[in-house]
Amino acid sequence: MKKALILVDFQNDFIDGSLGTPEAQKIVPTVLEKLKTYPEACRFATKDTHFEDYLSTQEGKNLPVLHCQKGTLGWEIRKEAQVGYAKVFEKTTFGSLELAQYIKEEAFDAVELIGICTDICVVSNALLIKAYAPEVKVSVDASCCAGVSPEKHQAALETLRSCQVEVTNA
Known about the structure:
Organism: Lactococcus taiwanensis
GO molecular function: metal ion binding; nicotinamidase activity
EC number: 3.5.1.19
Family: Belongs to the isochorismatase family.
Shape: globular
Number of strands: 6
CATH superfamily: Isochorismatase-like
Pfam families: Isochorismatase
Largest sheet: 6 strands, parallel
């Protein structure tokens, strides 16, 4: 069985930077343990990537907090989680079409997603993968995810279940 782990936006700005939360800080040890369970060739990551014009974009107008600006410390994957990845997908929006297409083209049987934010980028990427590769088994480990708030995290898990994404460790 060809299985992948996708670490979504586990970047400093989302953990303890400009958009960090206590919930994101709390999952760091669990995420690090999960990463150890997959070989590098089966680990993938996404990086939310913005530029100097962020505040003039639609997203920036709705969320006027500069974050994950390419080349900054906030944009980097958490130091302890820089464990080697088969591929890192930089994305300028919530979901990565490139990632979803890659999962389909590489004929994965299953993918597991973990990371931040459950209610924005984790759910967006899980649903894109379901749309592009409907026969791939998609799961999300809730214990390795954090949302904007605990309530939004739970709401996202319900949305994922409704869309036939398996939610584990909830």
